[in-house]
Amino acid sequence: MKTPGLAILVGISSLAGMATAAELTRADWGAPPVDVSHSAGHWTIAGKKQTVTLDEKTLALEVEAQFVFWTMPASATNEMIVKTDGREFPLRLADAGQILITPYDTGFKTGVKVTLGGWPKADLKLFLTICLQGDDEELVFDTVAQEGKTVLRQLDWPPALDAGDVDDTVLSNNKGNLLPRHWPKPYYPVRATDPNMGTARTNDHSIIQSHLIEDWSMSWWGFERKGTAMMVIIETPDDAAYQFDHPAGGPTVIGPRWLPTLGKFGYLRTARMCFFANGNYVTLAKRYRQYVQDTGLFVSLKEKIAKKPVLGEVIGIPQTRVGILHNQTPASDRYSATNHYELFTFDQRAQQLRELKAAGIAKTLVYISGWAHLGYDRQHPDSLPPPEAAGGWDGMKRLADTCTELGYPYIFHDQYRDYYVDAPSYNPDFAIHEETANGPAIAFAGSRFGDWKEGQVPFMRHWDGGPQSYLNARFQAGHLEKNYELFFAHGIHPQGIYIDVIGYVPPDEDFNPEHPTTRTEAMRGQADLMNWAGHNLGITATEAGADWVIPFSDVINQSGGLGRTISVPLYQLVYHDAVLISYGEGRRGGKNNLLLGLLCGGVPELPVDLKTVDENSLAWMKQMAALNRRVGLLEMTNHEFLDAGRRQERSTFADGTTVTVDWDKNTAQIEPPLK
Asked: Which of 158, 334, 345 is nearest to 255 (CA)?
């Protein structure tokens, strides 16, 4: 039965609701209290904490953040590179024939939209938004291009900060560095610029790009100035880099740089600026920690252990690496006529592990490398069967059984990116193809160690296996499954895997029209490697660990070193309780690396032959393992330098544990003391 009275009542109620909504203030429904105004050629975005001023002609920006000024200079030559009719050329944003600036309000962020177009010979339009967002009024920049015959190949926006009075630039390359404004040497993150380092890298043409450890282990950088701080978080890092310059004596220039994806701009890019009236590098690291927790990039070790209980067994235990066959091909640039071959049989390594157990090492995580048919770094991704000279399948099975008998979990050091031309399945169709056959190869690490191209395919021959290209990431997981199904068929079931390089190097684009692959898609393919390994094996480890691998990887190593300026543990301040980091005396830094491991609450790398370790180093390794048992699942809450010369420093963990390192005295003091 119809109820007309009810219908009339609902209608009246709806009208009343509409009237009430019309009377609500922005604050009533959560909109940011930000005003946008225009006067005398300037647009002003004014919040309660930050005021942003944009010059409508030069596009210069000034931010007053709680009485502290941060400025970004006017639009400059070469800040944009476009391509049309097969030709690349630079453009200046402010030279656009059409510039339209209007208020912009999404309901949760408020500012202005800048629409740019009308450059000569370029049918291109840009949309830039500049907005304050949230209670902290962080400044968010969105950038997208409407591309036609003209495509956008590179864009430096927002401009690099005017760092003329900045005290330190905070860089997340390696595990974290401070670069003082007046640092006396020239500095370039991914290439050696110090002439005293010799000629080994004279021809290095590596470029700055995201997800390359020496450029950024995390997608942010920042600045310290007289007790204040600010930072830039790159929210769309997959096709990003940064413009950078630091001549001898400074100052440092650094700002966002957007790279193309498969040749064009393609999608919206976002950078976020955060401002702190009181803060330093720790403040910035903790803001980034909040960001990765909010976005799901942070996955704690406790969460990982809940899915993979075997991971819990390696908290607070050392890691031991055992190599089987080292066998450089003469085609390798590193080939040594006197030191190219070394063999340990599987049975010899099994005996060493028994001796390690007898020496009192109750548990260690064993990394087995050099098990490939021709030896370490040979014939990947078709590295099986195991070398006959080392004992073949039967010998490998005896080593695996010995690890199980001793209670030592074991994993294989493996590799699926380097694509060796003598691998049985090698086919250049599955190697990555660069955009053109012209110009030098750009793929890392050939760009550092020497490379060439055959057509569009880049090659290098630095590692033991000699000539190689790079396997498209779409095909890597299939090879992983193929190899481990063969292990399983021989009764060998490792408790995990170490997948070399993928946490260290940037993802690879592939322009092959049969399987075009963006950097984002390449990362997805390599995530498939780690996900399959986590589900079917257990522990997943990789090299160095750019932060895109954090959700998928459990263990990384200290590969990449400390950088060349003032080392600070930015990575650990963000991710200490999300990934285990190992520290070994054999790496660059020697014994200092063990002190660093204590400072950072990591896990030690223990040689299989204890006779190669002095008593002091062994004591530090045992201390590090015990400390990791205490704090391995806890946040590193603080780091500080205790003296002007930065020779004493202290880390603090969530339970109150502190570790104080004195680099002059070579001591580490842990409070409260370990039992």
From this structure: 158
Are residues 246 and 380 located together in one domain of the fold? no
User: Rounded to 5 degrees, what are φ and ψ at 517?
Assistant: -140, 120
Shared domain for 399 and 499, answered yes or no, is yes
For range 641-653, the mean pLDDT: 97
Whether residues 247 and 329 share a domain: the answer is no
pLDDT at 15 over 50: no
Q: Assign residue 582 the CATH number of its domain.
A: 3.20.20.80
Alpha helices, DSSP H, located in 243-336: 281-295, 301-307, 309-312
The Cα-based distances of 26 to 103, 132, 637, 638 in angstroms read 16, 15, 37, 38
Asked if residue 482 and residue 513 are part of one domain, the reply reads: yes
Indicate the length of the chain as a whole number.
675
Same domain, yes or no: 244 and 123: yes
The pLDDT of residue 192 is: 75
Look at residues 440, 498, 507, 520 and name the one whose alpha carbon lies nearest to residue 471.
507
Q: What distance separates the 2 farthest-apart alpha carbons in the chain?
A: 99
DSSP characters for 323-353?
E-EEE--TTSTT--TTSSEEE--HHHHHHHH
Range(s) of the domain holding residue 368: 301-427+473-631
Residues 550 and 414 in one domain: yes
Q: Are 240 and 259 in contact (CB under 8 A)?
A: yes
